[in-house]
Amino acid sequence: MAEDFQSDIEAVQRIDAVPTILDVVCSTTGMGFAAVARVTEDRWIACQVLDNVHFGLPAGGELKVETTLCHEVRQHHEVIVIDNVAEDPVYCEHHTPRIYGLQSYISVPIVLPDGTFFGTLCAIDPKPHKLSNPQTLATFKLFAELIAYHLDAGSKLNAARTDLLDAQAASELREQFIAVLGHDLRNPLASIDGGTRMLLKEPQSQTAQTILTLMRGSVLRMSRLIDNVMDFARGRLGGGIGLERISGRSLNSTLEQVVAEITSAHPERSFETDIDVRDDVRVDHGRIGQMLSNILGNAVTHGSADAPVRVSAFVRDSTLYISVANGGNPIPDAAKALLFQPFSRGDAGTSQQGLGLGLYIASQIAEAHGGRLEVSSDDRETKFTFTMPIEPTRS
Prior knowledge:
The protein is an alpha+beta fold. The chain has ten helices and eleven strands. The protein has helices spanning about 5-15, 15-30, 70-75, 95-100, 135-200, 205-235, 250-265, 285-300, 335, 360-370, and strands at about 35-40, 45-50, 60-65, 80, 105-110, 115-125, 270-275, 310-315, 320-325, 370-375, 380-390.
């Protein structure tokens, strides 16, 4: 009958101190039966017992709750103590002593730290015993509080174990997820990219050239999406955006290659570049390229098709500046505040492409470099600017 409360029974039985508590209760008061009981509105179940008078109720055994005084303890959260039923003006005619043949009784509520009533620490005996004294009451209350503390600690420990298992499962899922993106999607995408590159070198009709160019644009956009989702997964599930900073490599070449890729994918758009980074800037070239690609992709998607996309890069006062500007409608202030949040894709009424991760990942790359990505937008232009202090070159 106690199957529904098996977890409560096990929780009490995992408390090593409970058998000792019951033994101390019986030895110090002379009571023959003591128990920790789980008490609800309609159930009374013994979780742990010490039975020296052959009362006959084992751990897991159940009494009809309405026949017990613990039922009243649950209702009022007050201690009930009876030294001698025959002499007690309140309980001498009560049905519980008659049913169970007891003459002395004590029951103290076990209340968890959050105020939840769990049950009682109770003791009975067929003989009268002197229980209503400050020492006995204080001892019972202390033991009840100790049991409540252990129950709460055990519950929190189980929750922590569950959280740990969930975290481990999430970690495994993360690795599987990233592996799928990094291998199962990238490989066929690389094949498509290689195939379109080869076909574009062969004589093709104008229609075929247009289709292949569109395919290359889709490949480039899908590659950016994969990069962004992988970085988002690493950042949110653990790992963050890692950097491999190097020096002695031209940043101009990195930025110009990104612009060339975007230009090739969008031949219908106009691009203007002013890239002049002569200093030796120590950055992760792949990540900076990814950041610029994301910002350029945003400019192509949201900028006016009648205005050129302008890319600028230079160093001034030991600070690297990379900016992308485009014409078009200004970004509303409400949308501007959310631009660098994940899954933010501007105005809901605008036709959008992608997951809304591009600018978020770009901002994370900027922060990982110790820099900032900011936006300004008015009726004339929308401009994203990356700034980063340049580390002194070590000799």
